[in-house]
Amino acid sequence: MADSSGNALKRSHPExxxxxxxxxxxxxxxxxxxxxxGAPAGKVDIEKMVAEARAKAxxxxxxxxxxxxxxxxxxxxxxxxxxxxxxxxxxxxSRLEQxxxxxxxxxxxxxxxxxxxxxxxxxxxxxxxxxxxxxxxARGGLDVGLHPALLSDTKPEYRGAxxxxxxxxxxxGRGKQxxxxxxxxEEIRNNPYFDPSLGPKATVAKPRNSRQLVFNQKGKxxxxxxxxxxxxxxxxxxxxxxxxxxxxxxxxxxxVEKSYLVPAPPAVEWWDEGLINGPDYAAIDDPRxxxxxSADSIITxxxxxxxxxxxxxxxxxxxxxxMHLTPKEQAKIRRQRRMADLKEQQAKIRLGLEPAPPPxxxxxxxxxxxxxxxxxxxxxxxARVTREIADRKEQHEIMNEERKxxxxxxxxxxxxxxxxxxxxxxYISVYRIDSLASGRNRFKISKNAEQNxxxxxxxxxxxxxxxxxxxxxxxxxxxxxxxxxxxxxTENPGPTTSDPNRESQPLWLSTEDEKGEPRDFSHNSCVLLxxxxxxxxxxxxxxxxxxxxxxxxxxxxxxxxxxxxxxxLAKSHKPAEF
Length: 578
Hints:
Elements: H1 41-69, H2 91-111, H3 133-136, E1 158-159, E2 165-166, H4 185-190, H5 200-203, H6 220-248, H7 327-351, H8 366-369, H9 371-376, H10 378-403, H11 407-423, E3 426-433, H12 439-451, E4 455-460, E5 465-471, H13 473-486, E6 526-534, E7 542-547, H14 551-559, H15 564-572
Parallel strand pairs: 4-7
Antiparallel strand pairs: 1-2, 3-5, 3-6, 4-5
C-alpha cells in the first residue's frame, strides 16, 4: 500500500510502537533523515556512550577492590539511568555503543592485577581458582579461567625459596630439594631380600676416582730397544760360533770331559722353591719357613689346567700313498694320453703352426711307403731307411740322458727322502755281535749307517760288541736287513793290508791267532737285541766304532748318551741253543 507521495508504507519498528511513529525514510544518499528540531543526534549519542562506559568501568573497579579487601562487592546495577536528552535514538548507534562499552570493560580488567576472589559475584559463576601464579595466567578470553580438564597440557612453572623460577623436573614442594642419596645400611639390612653374605662393598656404591696421568720417563723405550739389540747380537754371535765349529768338524769326543759328568743335585729343587723360604731343605725344620698356608703360597683352592698339547703321534702318520693301477688301466690311460697328444699335433699341422713330420719308414713297411723308389733303387732306399732308424735311436737315447738326474741331484733327492722319513718318527734298533775282529764287517757297519743317515755308536769289546742305531723307519729297516741277512758273520776274510793301525791293534781285534793262522768264526752271530720308537735322537751323528777294553769304559761311553742300560741287557742275553 502506498501513500499519496508515492512511497510504500513500511512496518513500524518495535521501539517506535509506543510513540506511534513510523520508521524514518532514507534519503537518496542512503543515510537516515535527521530529526527536525532539537540538537544533532550524533553528539548526544557519543556522550551517552562515554557515560555508560565510565559507569561500567567504575563498577568493575569497585568489585575488584572489594574482592581484594575481602568486603562484599556492591550489587551491579542492572540498568543505568537514562541521561537527559532526547527520548529517541537509532538502533545502529545503540549496538555500537554496547560493543565499545564491552571493549572498554575488558581492557580495564586486563590492565588490573589479577586477584583471587573469595566469593564469586552474584551475576556469574566463578571457575575454580588455582594456587599457582603461573597457572593463573592461563586465562581465556574476557578474563575467563580455563577448565580444569584443559590444564593437563600446560607446563607449570615453580619458584624456589628465593623466588627464582625452577625448570621442569625440579622438586614439587616450594623450597624443598629431592633426596638423591641411596638407602642407608640400616634400611638395606631391614630389607627382607637382603643377603647377609654380601659385604659392605657390595651394598654401598664405591665412589669413582679419576686416574692420574702417568708419563713415561725420557729414554725408557730407547733403553729397551738397546737391550733387545744387544740380545739379538749375542744370539747371532752364538750362531756364528756354532756354525764355525760345525764347519771345522770338531769332534764331540774332544770336548771337555767334565761336560759329560752328571751335575750335582741343587740345594732346592725347582718345584719346591715356591714352598720353602730358605736356601736349602734344612729350612723345613722351622714351620715359619713353610709357605703352604700363607697368603703368598702357590697352593690355592683354584685348579690350574695345563695347556693342551697336540698328540705327537698325529704328525708321525705317513702320507697317503697313491692307488696303484692294474696293467690294463695303465695301458688304457697311456693310449688315451697318446691319442690326445696326436690330435693336438694334427690340429697344429692343419693350421700351419708346425711342419708335417716325415714318414716313419721301417724295413717292414719299406715297399708300402716307398713303392716306386724302392723298385728303382732298392740299395739306396735300404741305406736311407737304415740311417733314419739309427738317427731315431740316437735321438731317443739323448732324450733319456737329458731326463736323468745328476749325481748331486740324486744325492739331494735321497737326503730329502731320508729327512722326511725321520720326521715321521725316530726308531731305535740295538744289535749284539759276538766278534767284530773283521775290519771288513766294521767298515760295512759304519758305511751303511752313514748312507742311511743313521746316528748311533758301535762299541767294540773283547767279549761282546754292541751296535746302536737310530733314524727313520725306512732307514732302520734297511739297516736291519744288512745286519741280520746280508752280512755273513761266520766268514773270515783275512787281514786287511790297507789298515795302517794293523800292528798296533790288540790280538782280539785281529782275524789271526797268535800262531798267524785264521781264526774260527763259525760260532759268530748277530742278534737283534731290542727295537722301538723314541721321542728324539740320543746321538748327534754316527760316532763310529769305539774300542773299550773293560766294562766300565763301555758303560762310560754309553752313559754320555744315557744308553748304558743296553750294555747291561747285552751282557745278560743268552744265545739260543740249537
